[in-house]
Specification:
Blueprint lengths: L1 H19 L15 E2 L5 H4 L29 E16 L3 E19 L2 E21 L4 E23 L2 E22 L6 E25 L3 E10 L3 E16 L2 E19 L3 E10 L3 E10 L16 E10 L13 E15 L2 E15 L6 E12 L7 E16 L8
Length: about 425
């Protein structure tokens, strides 16, 4: 019981830290929509390019498809947490580099019964972080665009096994957070009156994700897996504040002169996008796995106060797998897991008549802990997003994710003889 309490408290502590200390590098494309949408996959799935819809494991919290929770050990609990370091280079008329470290996800899974497993956790849904300056040298006017914040997601998931080889599940999520955007116009002329227009959006609401998995044994060769997910368009709400002010700078301090416009709108109703995905896989227990996914999301119908913000429907494809040399081996190297994957995404942004794409290559290694199912891992991803055509920006990035999966005994009935 002491171990259980320690894991439980440790998990909530990390959730608190993650919710209050997210820090992402400058990304101009996060200006649009809800910002940069998170990968929302565990490190084990990220190492396979994000392949997850037809994947389940007793030692992995695969929150991309809640039906996968049914694979948990009936007498053990599982804490899965990932931290990511990202380094990127933005290329346009000039080159800019940046980096950051942040909590990628945290999940805690445990059994209720042999046919019922549950999970709860935290992950960033989206992040907004950009700081762009435009200088008109002729008039000595600088226009600055600044944005920060994001939306977080706490979720509670359950999986059920109505009959052999088949499972269904759901994630019930609470979305909350705030993001703010501003545009500032300043001049080097001391007589110039500066202006600032700001917009703050506080988001809160619930969402639901449904999942299904079926694994068909093919004699003794392995299992053919099928997975489906569906996220309906459920309404959420925003409190929006808009303000336009004028000001002067006196000894480098901004002194407000006048408020030209101010408004506050409460409980603006809008719906998160509908999404559907399917995956197929082939595997032989812990020895090897290979799978592919396709997910489509209806962002074209997303709007806040009637503003779509250049969003279009998106889709993502992934292909990946993993390999363990000898699951029953006694040597350390024989129980290491090697993963490889690729992914391609048409994002929800269409700017200057170009729909931006993202592609990446992933590689991961999972290291076992002696005499335990606990493990820690490393995942590396190299990718790029966007283009320099039509005066757009191209991003090249490299991410390293460190994960820890703590697998502990949950309970065990004692027998008296």
């Amino acid at each position: 019981m002491r171990k259980i309490c320690n894991i439980f408290c440790f998990g909530f502590l990390l959730c608190f830290v993650a919710a209050s200390a997210q820090n992402h590098p400058n990304s101009p494309y996060s200006r649009f929509g809800l910002g940069e949408i998170g990968s929302r996959t565990s490190s084990a799935n990220a190492a396979m390019g994000g392949t997850s819809l037809a994947f389940q494991s007793a030692t992995v919290v695969n929150f991309a498809n809640p039906a996968s929770y049914i694979a948990y050990d009936s007498m053990s609990s599982l804490l899965d947490v990932g931290f990511t370091y990202k380094n990127h280079t933005l290329t346009a008329a000039s080159v800019q580099k940046g980096s950051s470290i942040y909590v990628d996800y945290l999940a805690f899974g445990l059994p209720i019964a042999r046919w019922w497993k549950t999970t709860f956790g935290f992950q960033p849904f989206s992040t907004m972080s950009y700081n762009v300056n435009s200088v008109n040298e002729m008039d000595s006017i600088t226009t600055s665009f600044l944005g920060d914040g994001g939306i977080n997601e706490f979720y509670w998931g359950n999986a059920f096994r109505p009959f052999k080889h088949f499972s269904v599940g759901f994630n019930a999520s609470y979305l909350f957070g705030e993001y703010a955007k501003s545009r500032t116009v300043e001049s080097a002329n001391s007589l110039f009156i500066h202006s600032k227009t700001s917009n703050a959006n506080m988001v809160k609401g619930f969402s639901l994700a449904l999942g299904m998995q079926y694994f068909a044994p093919i004699k003794e060769k392995g299992k053919l897996g099928l997975g489906l997910i569906y996220t309906p368009a459920i309404p959420i709400y925003s409190d929006i504040e808009n303000q336009t002010i004028t000001y002067r700078k006196v000894n480098l301090v901004s002194v407000v002169l006048d408020t030209l416009y101010q408004s506050k709108e409460l409980k603006i109703k809008h719906s998160m996008p509908q999404s559907i995905g399917a995956g197929i896989s082939w595997g032989n227990g812990l020895h090897y796995f290979i799978g592919t996914d396709f997910t489509w999301t209806n962002w074209a119908n997303y709007a806040v106060n009637g503003i779509n913000d250049s969003l279009v429907n998106s889709y993502k494809m992934s292909l990946g797998g993993n390999y363990m040399p000898n699951p029953t081996g006694s040597k350390f190297a024989s129980r290491m897991v090697f993963s490889l994957g690729i992914n391609y995404e048409q994002t929800y942004l269409k700017l200057n008549d170009i729909q931006l794409n993202r592609m990446g290559v992933n590689f991961g290694i999972q290291f076992p802990v002696k005499r335990s199912k606990t493990s820690f891992g490393l995942v590396f991803e190299y990718g790029q997003m966007g283009t320099t055509d039509s005066e757009l920006i191209k991003e090249n990035y490299f991410k390293t994710t460190i994960s820890l999966r703590i697998h502990e005994q949950w309970y065990q009935r004692k027998r008296l003889e």
